[in-house]
Design brief:
heterodimer; A: 274 residues; alpha/beta; Rossmann fold; globular; B: alpha/beta; six-stranded parallel β-sheet; 6 strands; nicotinamide-nucleotide adenylyltransferase activity (chain A)
Chain lengths: 274, 265
């Protein structure tokens, strides 16, 4: 049955991952189950893209550690992986640019695929191309759809002044798509309803309800670590070991960027870090 | 300093059908809390899955529940699985399981302290505290004390008074209220440790089984090794969930002195 009506999807999650927790990983699993359950999508890949150090968030430890922890955490997954492009940029990169970059990668990968297959499938493809003439997706028909995966808090952050450029939100949701994981207490539908822009693109916003509430947050993990409490079973064992081995997350590391203005605010308001 | 602390073993009784990350998290939270009292040194944790005779709906065979718990705890250096309770032909009262383990722990302790005496030629100071065993339970557990016919009064007395409880609460005043509403529990309040869990995590074995029946992912809710085991043995299907359906829980029949209801009923 799997044919042309099923769209391949790549899920992209942007964030601090400071550190990555089981909750981040659960979001991918829940999103995949939900999208595939609609019968319209097949999720082929998940990408974790930790933010760069230039983001200047309080307590944000070096990207190399955050990337490595995410890599360790996804070792056991056969579909989620980490990408360090965003984190290796010298300055903070707008999420819209990160999405664009990854979409570009997907297009390139597909073109390379096509080159390899050219001889064998040239004829078949020609036929399919003809069949699909007139479809708006015809050019990148084989390129998976890229969707940004996020929690309900990100959706609501669209309303915070100077955190997002409006045209970026339009691009992310209108051109790509959003998968938003929500838990009891949040009402993203109401939030979408109250924003004309979000409402316009509501069909590109997939709201997924998480039935089993799981509030593991990276903030909680860091707090537990500062207080010498156990963090086991909140994140994968290899990450727990990595944190111990490198002695990450102390009272000191939490003070990093303490008085610095978050990069997006700096960029959009012209504020400086004094 | 540390030697003056009371050595403490935590015992968790339950179905573990299947064991989840949240079960193991309870042990971590309890240990941290008991250490922070300054009075206890947690020296071990025991997971004791209930026997098949419990008669709970959807209860997988004990051998599977034991195997999964062992896989899950392979990486723990302080929590282990004990098969004694699960191997009893009939359901065992929690207090009986506690007595069994406490006897075992005391014997071990006497052997160790005895050896110390032989090696050093010294008698250990009298102040050296003997080990304790406490029951580790989740927030809803205290509420089971008031279900008619589930507990015998003298058993509640012994569990709370002689041994003690460490109860992980999910916020709200539910455990405090349960203690308040029971005269027995109130009397032993100083022996009931309520631990607040700040991260809401509603992972339950019931939710895990539900997700498995519906072919949804349970990754990161239970360890990978347990997921593999479940697939290998095809556990937790719609069929398995119907097991024991309509059966009265064994505690209710055993303690009421009623004839045991057949599982085929």
């Amino acid at each position: 049955m799997e044919g042309r009506d099923i769209t391949k999807v790549v899920l992209l999650a942007c964030g601090s991952f400071n550190p990555i927790t089981n909750m981040h990983l659960r979001m991918f699993e829940i999103a995949r189950d939900h999208l595939e359950d609609t019968g319209r999508y097949r999720v082929v890949r998940g990408i974790i893209s930790p933010v760069g150090d230039g983001y200047k968030k309080k307590g944000l430890i070096e990207a190399c550690h955050r990337v490595e922890m995410a890599r360790l955490a996804t070792d056991s997954s056969d579909w989620i992986s980490v990408d360090s492009w965003e984190s290796s940029q010298p300055e903070w990169v707008e999420t819209a640019k990160v999405v664009r970059h990854h979409y570009g990668e997907l297009v390139t990968a597909e073109q390379n695929n096509d080159d390899v297959d050219t001889v064998k499938y040239a004829k078949k493809r020609r036929i399919e191309d003809n069949t699909f003439e007139g479809s708006s997706h015809q050019i990148n028909r084989d390129v998976p759809q890229l969707m940004l995966l996020c929690g309900a808090d990100v959706l609501e952050s669209f309303g915070i002044p100077n955190l997002w450029k409006q045209e970026d939100i339009v691009e992310i949701i209108g051109r790509y798509g959003l998968v938003c994981i929500t838990r009891s207490g949040n009402d993203p539908h109401k939030f979408i309803h109250q924003s004309d822009m979000l409402w316009k693109y509501r069909k590109n916003i997939h709201v997924v309800h998480e039935w089993v509430t799981n509030e593991i947050s990276a903030t909680h993990v860091r707090r537990a670590l500062r207080r010498g409490r156990s963090i086991r079973y909140l994140l994968p064992d290899p990450v727990v070991w990595y944190i111990q081995e490198h002695n990450l997350y102390s009272a000191e590391s939490e003070q990093k960027n303490a008085d610095v203005v978050l990069a997006p605010f700096q960029r959009y308001t012209g504020a400086s870090s004094s | 300093m540390a030697t003056r602390r009371i050595p403490l073993v935590l015992l968790a009784c339950g179905s573990f059908n299947p064991i989840t990350n949240q079960h193991m998290r309870l042990f971590e939270l309890a240990r941290d809390h008991m250490h922070s009292t300054g009075q206890y040194q947690v020296v071990g944790g025991i997971v004791s899955p209930v026997s098949d005779g419990y008669g709970k709906q959807g209860l997988a065979l004990a051998k599977h529940r034991i195997a999964m718990a062992k896989l899950a705890l392979q990486s723990s250096d302080w929590v282990t699985v004990d098969e004694w309770e699960s191997q009893q032909p009939d359901w065992t009262e929690t207090v009986v399981t506690m007595r069994h383990h406490y006897g075992r722990i005391l014997k071990q302790y006497e052997q160790i302290t005895g050896k110390d005496k032989d090696a050093n030629g010294n008698i250990l100071p009298l102040s050296s505290p003997s080990p304790q065993l406490k029951l580790l339970c989740g927030a809803d557990f205290l509420d089971t004390f008031k279900i008619p016919g589930l507990w015998q009064e003298e058993h509640v007395e012994e569990v709370a008074g002689r041994f003690g409880l460490v109860c992980i609460s999910r916020g709200g005043l539910q455990p405090e209220r349960a203690v308040h509403e029971s005269d027995t529990l109130s009397r032993h309040q100083q022996n009931i440790f309520l631990v607040r869990e700040w991260v809401r995590n509603e992972t339950s074995a019931t939710e895990v089984r539900r997700a498995l029946r519906r072919s949804l992912s349970v990754k990161y809710l239970i360890p990978d090794s347990v997921i593999e085991y479940i697939y290998q043995h095809n556990l937790y299907t719609e069929d398995s969930e119907r097991k024991n359906k309509g059966t009265v829980l064994r505690p209710l029949t055993k303690q009421a002195g009623l004839p045991v209801k057949s599982l085929d009923d």
